[in-house]
Every structure is written in structure tokens, then in C-alpha cells.
């Protein structure tokens, strides 16, 4: 296991205060504290009941796997079996139960190992012109993380990060504000020239069911933290990470530019009676030049939501389950503060059993939404595939909104609607929608018959390419509960 050659190699480099980090030049290599040589040796002398030994996470200090933590090494695709995350955390709990306070090599809180200090230490030691490698195993994260001063760093994650859920009041009090709508986050990353790769092996487990059960269907429970926020980041690349049971939104991009997020897999849903509302895949806000591609998202709210002051956003090849699929909004909630969204493309999108597919939601506010393309959107069993509203949620003052929506294309939009409505579009009469173009729209109710297309206040409606079958009142809801 603990090969002499490897031991020699490691013993030649500086071992900082946390024994689990090895720093070699500008590279920090991090091992979960429950996998450190001391902890492993301790377990191997009989702390763990023999019957449970096979459940202990592999130490991976083993020669055969040493390439896994070579900086830049590619991990294995396909992805780790997601079920492993909960079993790994169960193992971590089981292991810690066996380590009594007086005998444990883990410190400071023996019964609740916390990898946060060493993770933050790795960021402070190697977060500028460096590489940080998280080796395989389970990292227990019991504290908020603010790593917003990064520069030219490569973060390589081969393990599972599990956010604690035994003290939700800690997270509710300490999570960082992200300004938007008073929301908070457990981890902010920011700075310049940042790559974070998970190789399809990194798994982020936010213990979301605990948060879902605490929130009891309340949309914005104060302090319920977003899993990962890109905060004041420039030139950020995130790839190959799997989320299971995020605390709240999986990701948020704020005050950032040139952010690429590819090959992400997210799944957060409730197994109790409570709804998983607000477990969005991502939201962008006050950010530009964003590329999102190759995502699979199962969540209880919007899949990809482009919010106020976002521009140049390209979203492609995303499959969404049970979600709000592709949306611009919500925006315009503060009537004194304008929100602008422009130059957005959503293409090659699949939505399965979702609330909406290609839609725009604004409050009766100010600002604009312009130059938006929804292209090649395919779906099955979507409540109301195309939807536009100027008064989301309240369905009040819809015709006083001055938030102009213009130059929007829906091209090649095909699939089945849950009820007999393909589109519900209500624009404000004070700022009618302009430059709407529809082509290749083929939406059929899943139970047969013809789908209605309801429209109000679209300029040049006759030449828009949409065959409206009736008007759409401001009160027309985002989600229907039956045929209309
Ligand atoms: C980025 O950091 C690496 C070390 O990880 C270094 O070799 C390289 O020169 C740095 N690039 C710049 C532009 O400073
Ligand atoms: C939970 O977190 C709060 C807020 O940080 C702290 O005051 C309290 O001591 C923690 N409780 C436990 C049991 O750790
Ligand atoms: C944008 O970020 C990527 C990393 O994702 C980087 O390679 C590229 O050079 C950046 N583009 C600009 C214009 O800086
Ligand atoms: C999307 O996934 C496919 C298949 O794995 C891969 O070939 C392609 O490079 C990915 N695209 C991006 C932008 O990562
Ligand atoms: C789309 O993304 C999925 C992963 O979500 C990937 O398996 C697939 O190969 C990608 N397709 C293309 C055409 O890139
Ligand atoms: C959006 O940008 C405009 C113009 O820069 C600014 O006035 C407004 O406060 C921003 N809105 C938000 C919600 O940040
Ligand atoms: C509209 O958005 C697309 C995609 O972002 C961009 O290429 C194009 O230049 C924009 N058009 C205008 C008129 O800004
Ligand atoms: C979207 O799909 C079309 C048709 O399959 C393909 O030609 C195009 O390259 C795809 N676009 C992106 C950005 O993957
Ligand atoms: C329409 O979109 C589907 C995917 O939903 C794609 O397979 C097809 O190639 C697209 N058709 C055209 C004409 O681009």
C-alpha cells in the first residue's frame, strides 16, 4: 500500500502544517484527512471492525494508482457511479464513529472530520500560478469557502466533496452573500485564469434532501446556500463535475466574464414529500461571454436561467429533466433598477417532463431582453413549452411593464405538450414585443388533438410566423393544470 518509493518521493518535499497536503513546487496535492497515512495506519491496527474494512475508501496511496494524482492526468470516464457518493459519506460517518476522541489521529474535531482547513490552505499556497490536485476519496466540508483571489490556477478534483448537513444553522449564518435577491453561497471562487476539472470523477454532494426538508417548499429560505458561485471571475473553465443533491442552486455566475462550463451532470430531486424548488442548474447575472455545453440536469426548478445584465451567453447540448429548461429571467424585479439581457443562444436542447421549454419571464420592470435565439429544442411532456410573461408570479400590472422584449427567434421547436397549449405569450401593452420570429414549430398535445397558441401584444404578429389561435390574458399562468 504505502510503497517505499512513493514514501521517499513524498518525504523529499515540504510537508506543511496539515499532513494531508504535499506541496511540490507550485503544485499542492491534497488527500482527504480520513485517508492520510496516520488515519489509514490507525484504521489498519483495528479501530474499524473487520467486517467494515472493505467499506473503507481505498487509500489510493497505492503505486498502481499513483498516476491519478499526477498534475494534469486525465481521470476516467465514464463518470463515477453517483450512488458512490452517499456510500462514501456513509463510510466516512462509519469510520469516524469508530475513532474515539482520545485515540483518533484526526483533529481537531475527531468525530466530525473537516477537510475545509486543508482545502483552504491548498488554495492559499497554490492558488496563484499553481496547480491544486484533490486526490480520490471523500472530503468533508464543514465550513464556508471563499477562494476569490485566484490567478492562473488549475484545480483538479478526483474525489468527492460532501457538504455537512448536521448543523444547517451554521450554513444559514455563515454562507456568503451573493447580493442577488439576498441569496447566499457555500463556496465562492473568483479571480483570473482559473480551470477546475473533475474528469467525470469529481462528485459534489450537498446533502440536499436535508435542505429540501428544512425549506418545506419555501422558495427562498434565507441562508440556504448555492453550491458553487463563480464570483468576479475572468477566464474561468469548469469541466467534468457531477453534482448530486445540491443544497440550493447548483451553480451561479455573477460579476464574471469569459466563463466556460462543460460536461456537467447535476441531479437534485426530493425523495420526501417536500418539493425541490430552487435547485436550478445555473443562473447567470451581471456577467458576459458565457459558454455552457454538454450538461445533463435533473432538478426541481429552472435548468439554465439567464438573469439580469447577462450578455453573450451560448448554451448548447443540454438535457433537462423535471425542470424549467431554458429561460431568460426572472428579471425586472426591482422597478428602480433596470435589467438588461442580450445576445443569448440556446441550441440543441432536450427537455423531458418539464414545466416549460423555451421561455422568457419578467416582472413588470424596466430594461430590455433582446437578440435571443431558441433553436433545435426538442421535448416530451412539457407543461407549457413556449411561454412569455411580463408579470411573472404576481400576474398583476402586466400591461404596465416597460421591460421591452425584442428580436427573439424560436426555430425548430418540436415535441409534446402536457395539455392543449403549445404557447402562451403575454407581452406588456406598454412595451409590446417586437421582432418575434417563429419557424419549424411543431408542438402536439401528448394526448392528441390540436395545441392552442395564445398571444397578446406582439407587434407584426401576422408576419411573425406564429399562427395564434387566441389571445393570452396577463393572468395566464406559467403552469397549467389541465386543458384550457
Ligand atoms: C501559470 O502558472 C504556471 C505554474 O502552474 C507557470 O508555469 C506559468 O508560467 C504561469 N503563467 C503565467 C502567464 O504566469
Ligand atoms: C452550529 O453552528 C452555529 C453557527 O456557527 C454554532 O454557533 C453552533 O455552535 C454549531 N453547533 C454545533 C452543534 O456545532
Ligand atoms: C477565455 O477563457 C479561456 C479559458 O476558459 C481562455 O482559454 C481564453 O483565452 C479566454 N479568452 C480571452 C479572450 O481571454
Ligand atoms: C461534448 O461531449 C462530446 C461527447 O463526449 C465531446 O465529444 C465534446 O467534445 C463535448 N463538447 C464539449 C464542448 O466539451
Ligand atoms: C451532449 O452532452 C452529453 C452529456 O450531457 C454527451 O453525452 C453527448 O455526447 C453530447 N453530444 C454532443 C453532440 O456533443
Ligand atoms: C444592470 O446594469 C445597469 C447598467 O449598468 C445597472 O444600472 C443596474 O443596476 C444593473 N442591475 C442589477 C440588478 O445589477
Ligand atoms: C445577436 O446575438 C448573436 C449571438 O450572441 C451574435 O452573434 C449577434 O452578433 C447578435 N446580433 C446583434 C445585432 O447584436
Ligand atoms: C447543434 O446541432 C446541429 C444539428 O445536429 C449541429 O449541426 C450543430 O453543430 C450543433 N451545435 C452545437 C453548438 O453543438
Ligand atoms: C431540429 O432539431 C432537431 C433536434 O431537436 C435536430 O435533430 C434537427 O437536425 C433539427 N433540424 C434542423 C433542420 O436543423
From TrEMBL:
One of its GO terms (molecular function) is galacturan 1,4-alpha-galacturonidase activity. Residues 1-19 form the signal peptide. It comes from the Eukaryota. It is found in: Secreted. InterPro entries: Glyco_hydro_28, PbH1, Pectin_lyas_fold, Pectin_lyase_fold/virulence. One of its GO terms (cellular component) is extracellular region. Keywords: Carbohydrate metabolism, Cell wall biogenesis/degradation, Disulfide bond, Glycoprotein, Glycosidase, Hydrolase, Polysaccharide degradation, Repeat, Secreted, Signal. Residues 84-93 have a biased composition (Low complexity). It catalyses: [(1->4)-alpha-D-galacturonosyl](n) + H2O = alpha-D-galacturonate + [(1->4)-alpha-D-galacturonosyl](n-1). One of its GO terms (biological process) is pectin catabolic process. Belongs to the glycosyl hydrolase 28 family. This is galacturonan 1,4-alpha-galacturonidase. It comes from Staphylotrichum longicolle. The lineage of its organism: Eukaryota, Fungi, Dikarya, Ascomycota, Pezizomycotina.
Amino acid at each position: 500500500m504505502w510503497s517505499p518509493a512513493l514514501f521517499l518521493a513524498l518525504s523529499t518535499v515540504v510537508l506543511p502544517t496539515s499532513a494531508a497536503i504535499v506541496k511540490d513546487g507550485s503544485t499542492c496535492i491534497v488527500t482527504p484527512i480520513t485517508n492520510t497515512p496516520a488515519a489509514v495506519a490507525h484504521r489498519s491496527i483495528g479501530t474499524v471492525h473487520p467486517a467494515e474494512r472493505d467499506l473503507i475508501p481505498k487509500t489510493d496511496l497505492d503505486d498502481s494508482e499513483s498516476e491519478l494524482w499526477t498534475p494534469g492526468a486525465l481521470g476516467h470516464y465514464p463518470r463515477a457511479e453517483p450512488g458512490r457518493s452517499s456510500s462514501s459519506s456513509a463510510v466516512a460517518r462509519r469510520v469516524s464513529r469508530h475513532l474515539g476522541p482520545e485515540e483518533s489521529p484526526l483533529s481537531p474535531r475527531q468525530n466530525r472530520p473537516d477537510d475545509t482547513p486543508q482545502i483552504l490552505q491548498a488554495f492559499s499556497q497554490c492558488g496563484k500560478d499553481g496547480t491544486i490536485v484533490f486526490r480520490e476519496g471523500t472530503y468533508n466540508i464543514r465550513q464556508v469557502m471563499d477562494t476569490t483571489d485566484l490567478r492562473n490556477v488549475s484545480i483538479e478534483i478526483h474525489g468527492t466533496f460532501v457538504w455537512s448537513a448536521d448543523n444547517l444553522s451554521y450554513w444559514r449564518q455563515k454562507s456568503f452573500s451573493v447580493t442577488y435577491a439576498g441569496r447566499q453561497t457555500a463556496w465562492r471562487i473568483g479571480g483570473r485564469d482559473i480551470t477546475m476539472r473533475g474528469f467525470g470523477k469529481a462528485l459534489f454532494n450537498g446533502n440536499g434532501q436535508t435542505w429540501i426538508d428544512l425549506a418545506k417548499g419555501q422558495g427562498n429560505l434565507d441562508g440556504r446556500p448555492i453550491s458553487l458561485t463563480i464570483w468576479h471571475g475572468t477566464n474561468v473553465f469548469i469541466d467534468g463535475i457531477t453534482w448530486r443533491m445540491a443544497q440550493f442552486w447548483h451553480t451561479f455566475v455573477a460579476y464574471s466574464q469569459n466563463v466556460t462550463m462543460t460536461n456537467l451532470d447535476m441531479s437534485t430531486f426530493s425523495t420526501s414529500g417536500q418539493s425541490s424548488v430552487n435547485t436550478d442548474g445555473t443562473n447567470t447575472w451581471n456577467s458576459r461571454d458565457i459558454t455552457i455545453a454538454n450538461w445533463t440536469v435533473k432538478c426541481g426548478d429552472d435548468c439554465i436561467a439567464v438573469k439580469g445584465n447577462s450578455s453573450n451567453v451560448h448554451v448548447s447540448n443540454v438535457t433537462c429533466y423535471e425542470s424549467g429548461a431554458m429561460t431568460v429571467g426572472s428579471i425586472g424585479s426591482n422597478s428602480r433598477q433596470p435589467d438588461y439581457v442580450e445576445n443569448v443562444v440556446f441550441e440543441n436542447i432536450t427537455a423531458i417532463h418539464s414545466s416549460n421549454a423555451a421561455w422568457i419571464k419578467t416582472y413588470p420592470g424596466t430594461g430590455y431582453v433582446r437578440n435571443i435565439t431558441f433553436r433545435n429544442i426538442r421535448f416530451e411532456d412539457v407543461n407549457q413549452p413556449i411561454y412569455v410573461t411580463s408579470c411573472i408570479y404576481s400576474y398583476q400590472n402586466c400591461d404596465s411593464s416597460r421591460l421591452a422584449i425584442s428580436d427573439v427567434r424560436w426555430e425548430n421547436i418540436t415535441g409534446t405538450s402536457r395539455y392543449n397549449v403549445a404557447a402562451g405569450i403575454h407581452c406588456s401593452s406598454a412595451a409590446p414585443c417586437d421582432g418575434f420570429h417563429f419557424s419549424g414549430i411543431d408542438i402536439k398535445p401528448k394526448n392528441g388533438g390540436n395545441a392552442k397558441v395564445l398571444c397578446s401584444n406582439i407587434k407584426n404578429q401576422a408576419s411573425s410566423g406564429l399562427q395564434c389561435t387566441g389571445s393570452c390574458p396577463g393572468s395566464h399562468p406559467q403552469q397549467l393544470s389541465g386543458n384550457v
